[in-house]
Design goal:
With about 475 residues, the chain is α/β, with parallel strands linked by helices. It has two domains: about 35-330 and about 425-460, Alkaline Phosphatase, subunit A; about 335-405, no CATH class. About 40% of the residues lie in helices and about 15% in strands. The chain contains 18 helices and 14 strands. The protein has helices at about 5-25, 50-60, 90-100, 120-125, 140-145, 160-165, 195-200, 210-215, 250-260, 275-280, 285-305, 335-340, 345-350, 360-370, 380-385, 390-405, 415-420, 450-460, and strands at about 40-45, 75-80, 130-135, 170-175, 205, 220-225, 270-275, 315-320, 320-325, 325-330, 410, 425, 430-435, 445. The strands form three sheets. It has a ten-stranded mixed sheet with strand order 5-6-4-3-7-1-8-13-2-14, with helices on both faces. Strands 9-12 form a two-stranded antiparallel sheet. Strands 10-11 form a two-stranded antiparallel sheet. It is globular and about 60 Å long. The termini are far apart. The structure holds zinc ion.
Length: about 475
């Protein structure tokens, strides 16, 4: 062969090789034909749990192993929403639950406000059972983004109507007031009692831990354990605001849901959220946050235990975004945080007020001393005093700001919480831990919209922009 001919053939060979290598490297991980089929999907969401807080928890927990430490398939997820670098929980859950990016505060809709079919609806359509759990109001952004549609997350009266219309099988969490009319002490303006409506549709209904533990033999369960958010774990201790709480733990709710959902031979989808990790992070309340993360890991361990010998179940552990950029430093004093008895929210509620309704300086100083700040500075007292007139939640942020700085935890400051649309979320990348069948597709770096795409590729669940799967609505508000 002539030299010229050989060069051409060699050249073609190199091109073929380059194309082959490029194809292998770019081979889509979501190629359905090469993937195992997944029957059950469990998504565990720790809301507002960024990597800095993960480091904080590991140290607070004295470097003991975390349930996610043994995971072999780990991804790194960026979380920008359709309209902002920094996402809120509504846009984040919409992305993870539908594969479509939307604007902050959008729930299950695209950038134009059109509904997008979500994983929960797709799984119901496939005959699987669906469970939604949150320690927040169960109609708030995270569960709603996986299961309902609203142009604004603030329209929570719409969300339980969607849940019941779709016939989701297990619904557990806080937010009872969103289900009952104003006349009965609830928040619904349409006069509807959706708890009664659920019972008429065959749901068992429970309101406390004891009743939840006794539930058996039902395929449909609604449990609403608090009028608003479920209580912080740290505040269920004696001397704190929720000491008489009869609420179940996230683990108890999750285990009960698995018990009911797993009876469906076609499989199930469960989204279980440790929501108050985020609330404590917003308040820079390190101690309360550590208890919420502990609660989340207890639930996760139970999920892993349930799934460990199964060949048909995928477990994905994720957060929707970081909140307030909390992270440890060499000055972090874990002992000081642990000596804070209750949450900073509890602290804020206990500040005494004068005849004009303003916080008294004396009670701020006394409470700071009780929480390990022996010699508060004028600036610290003033920061808390200046939050007077805001919601007590905003005062909790001021207390968290003071104690976090005193005890050496780095974070955004209180003003970032007070003055931003997401109250202090950040765009820090978020780890994704996947275990079980199909978990290998979660390896890599990707956007949060890929979560629903990957779950869809593994299960055949189809999400799309357009009208949600038809349901017979007997409840929808006109
Ligand atoms: Zn948040």
């Amino acid at each position: 062969m002539k030299l010229k001919g050989r060069l051409i053939i060699n050249g073609l060979g190199i091109i073929c090789l380059v194309v082959l290598v490029a194809w292998v490297l770019n081979k889509p991980t979501s190629n359905v034909q090469n993937l195992p089929h997944v029957k059950n999907v469990i998504v565990m969401v720790a809301d507002g749990y960024g990597p800095g807080a993960l480091a904080l928890y590991r140290e607070w927990n004295q470097l003991k192993a975390l349930p996610t430490d043994q995971i072999s398939h780990i991804g790194l997820m960026y979380t920008n929403s359709g309209g902002d670098y920094v996402t809120d929980s509504g846009a984040a859950a919409t992305a993870m639950g539908t594969s479509v990016a939307t604007y902050n505060k959008g729930i299950g809709v695209d950038m134009k406000g059109r509904p997008v079919t979500n994983l929960s609806e797709a799984f119901k359509k496939m005959g699987k059972s669906v469970g939604l759990i949150s320690t927040n109001t169960v109609t708030d952004a995270t569960p709603a983004g996986f299961a309902a549609h609203s142009q604004s997350r603030h329209n929570q009266s719409l969300i339980p109507v969607h849940y019941l219309d779709q016939g989701y099988d297990v619904i557990l969490g806080g937010g009872r007031k969103k289900w009952i009319p104003k006349a009965n002490g609830g928040k619904r303006k349409d006069g509807k009692d959706l708890i009664q409506a659920a019972q008429a549709k065959g749901y068992a209904y429970v309101e406390d831990r004891e009743a939840l533990s006794r539930v058996s033999g039902t395929a449909k369960l609604l449990g609403l354990f608090h009028g608003s958010y479920m209580s912080y774990k740290v505040d269920r201790k004696p001397g704190c605001v929720a000491e008489s709480s009869k609420e179940p733990s996230l683990k108890e709710m999750t285990v009960k849901a698995l018990d009911i959902l797993s009876k469906n031979p076609k499989g199930f989808f469960l989204m279980s959220e440790g929501a108050r990790v985020d609330h404590a992070a917003h308040a820079i309340d390190v101690n309360a946050m550590m208890y919420e993360i502990q609660e989340f890991y207890a639930a996760l361990s139970a999920v892993y235990e349930w799934a460990k010998n199964r060949k048909d179940t995928l477990v994905v552990v994720v957060s929707d975004h970081d909140t307030m950029n909390l992270s440890p430093t060499q000055l972090t004093r874990y002992d000081a945080f642990q000596s804070m008895k209750c949450s900073t929210d509890d602290f804020a509620q206990k500040i005494e007020r004068d005849a004009d309704g303003k916080y008294t300086r004396g009670s701020i100083i006394a409470l700071l001393k009780q929480n390990g700040v022996e010699d508060p500075t004028e600036g610290e007292i003033q920061l808390i005093a200046s939050s007077h007139g805001m919601y007590s939640y905003k005062s909790a942020v001021a207390v968290g700001h003071v104690t976090a700085r005193r005890f050496g935890v780095s974070s955004n400051n209180a003003v970032v919480n007070w003055e931003t649309g997401t109250s202090g979320h950040t765009s820090v990348m978020i780890p994704v831990f996947a275990r079980g069948i199909g978990s290998q597709v979660f390896q890599g770096v990707y956007h949060n919209t890929s979560i629903a795409k990957k779950i869809g590729a593994l299960t055949g669940a189809k999400t799309y922009v357009g009208k949600p799967y038809a349901v017979q609505s007997s409840l929808a508000a006109k």
